[in-house]
Amino acid sequence: MKKTNLGILIPKICDSTYSQSDLYQFVNLVQKISLSYLKYQEVIGKHIRWERRERNSELEDMAIDCVAGLFMRNDENEFVQLKRYFEPHLMETPAPNDEELLILLRRLAIKKTKQELSRIFKERDPEGAKIIRNIRVAVKNSDDFGTFREMGREYIYFQPEVLEPISEYNCTTVYANSPDETPDNEYLRKDQPTIPEKTLRDLYLEDYTPKDHVSTSIRKMLRVTAEEEKFQNCLPTDAIARLIRYTNFEVVRSKLVAQIEVDSPLDYVRMKEIEEAKRNVLVKIKSKIQVQYVRSFKISEEKGEIYYRTLADVLDDITHNKKIESYYRHLRKYVPELTQKQYRSDERTIFEYLGKLTKKWFREYLKDLL
Fold first, then answer.
1. E strands along the chain, which residues?
2. H or E stretch at 251
3. β partners of residue 145
4. How far is CA 164 from CA 46, 168, 233, 240, in A?
5. Strand order through the sheet with 234-236
6. Cα angle, residue 320 at apex, residues 318 and 321 outer, rounded to 5°
7. What integer is the mean pLDDT of 100-127?
8. Cys-Cys link to 233, which of 49, 65, 225, 337 (CB 3.0-4.6 A)?
9. Coil, helix or strand for 192?
10. What percent of the chain has pLDDT over 90?
11. Cα atoms in the Cβ-side hemisphere of radius 13 Å centred on 36
């Protein structure tokens, strides 16, 4: 990266004595740090871009979106987050040099990028984000799991002492690591390849039951790797998530097929009642939009109608078991030019509140029906 005199530039940014050229130089540097992190994530296999096809400017736009929050100003036109982060370091004696300031800046920009990526992934794939969250909760609350990171991926493994008494899984070599340490390479069989996901799936499904908790599912997967000594006995978190997602999908699909095959007059009546509940919710939400937002001039009549039609689509997806998309993706069907940045600043607060309210009312109707 091009050498930058951060020892002069950052104090100017913090005390608002910068020129427009200084600000442009600083923003450009922060964006480049974020962009390099996004590119690294793609290199290690993560799907960062919204679109499958590669567009030259998409990662650059995403990088600036990720770090935009760092440049929020207060009433005095100060960059609040940058000032709060850097000023304690600038007051140190001796003051940090350019290299130390660049390290601090990298740490801040990458942390902010990670936070925004997490939010973007949740918007893009709420079901996947939920599965990952449940896996991490299960690992945190279980004494028999350990985790480590390697080459940007998180891995889960059985603690060595857990496998010691499980002779049927052929884990005869156990190493005395404390629970807070990563077992050595020999215990994890690092000289062996990671088990192929298809092999893992086929073997795991032999012992899978639909009522398994997430922690139980992880244990069954790890026991597969324990038995298969030609592979490592640890699994990437993302591979575990994909397999849990696959089994969840198969369960839902089998239930839907069963419903189609055994539809009865009672099922028909119940579907009619659900449709009626949906209509009632839409009447309430339309009134809410008009009374609380349109008549008070918080949003325009046109935007109110777009919100209403989008929320109707959300309910359709729920009632017809379609893939649940993010609020942003739903809204963009009616406002194709809407960007993530515009959505966050102009639409997110009101629209997502209405979305949560719509789902809450619909759940209440369904409780009465079922």
1. 145-150, 153-158, 234-236
2. helix 237-261
3. 158
4. 35, 10, 14, 23
5. 145-150, 153-158, 234-236
6. 65
7. 86
8. 225
9. coil
10. 31
11. 10
pLDDT confidence of residue 93: 86
Pairing of strands 234-236, 145-150: unpaired
Handedness of CA 295, 300, 302, 307 (dihedral sign): negative
Judged by phi (left if over 0) then psi (alpha if -120 to 50, else beta), residue 338 lies in beta
pLDDT tens for each residue of 163-184: 544 333 333 333 333 444 556 6
Amino acid found at 137: V
- Whether residue 232 contacts residue 190, with contact meaning beta carbons closer than 8 Å, is answered with yes
Query: Which long-range CB contacts under 8 A does 24-31 form with residues at least 24 apart?
Result: 27/64, 27/71, 29/1, 29/4, 29/105, 30/67, 30/70, 30/105, 30/109, 31/60, 31/63, 31/64, 31/67
Q: Find the distance separating the first CA and the last CA of the chain, reported in whole Å.
A: 61
The residues near 103 (Cβ < 8 Å, ≥ 6 apart) are: none
What pLDDT does residue 51 have? 52
Which DSSP letter does residue 28 get?
Answer: H
Q: Which residues contact 23 (CB under 8 A, 6 or more apart)?
A: 13
Phi, psi dihedral angles at 297 (to 5 degrees): 65, 25
Asked if 161 contacts 144 with a C-beta cutoff of 8 angstroms, the reply is no
Strand partners, 154: 149
| pLDDT in the model for residue 159 | 83
Q: Are 82 and 89 in contact (CB under 8 A)?
A: no
Model confidence pLDDT, tens digit, residues 230-269: 898 899 888 898 898 888 776 655 554 455 444 555 555 6
Q: Cβ of 190: how many Cβ atoms within 10 Å?
A: 15
104: its two tokens: 């601090």
Query: Distance between CA 58 and CA 56 in Å, rounded?
Result: 6
Q: How confident is the model at residue 270 (pLDDT cuts 50, 70, 90)?
A: low
* Mean pLDDT for the stretch of residues 93-100: 90
The pLDDT assigned to 266 comes to: 56
Q: What is the mean pLDDT of the chain?
A: 81
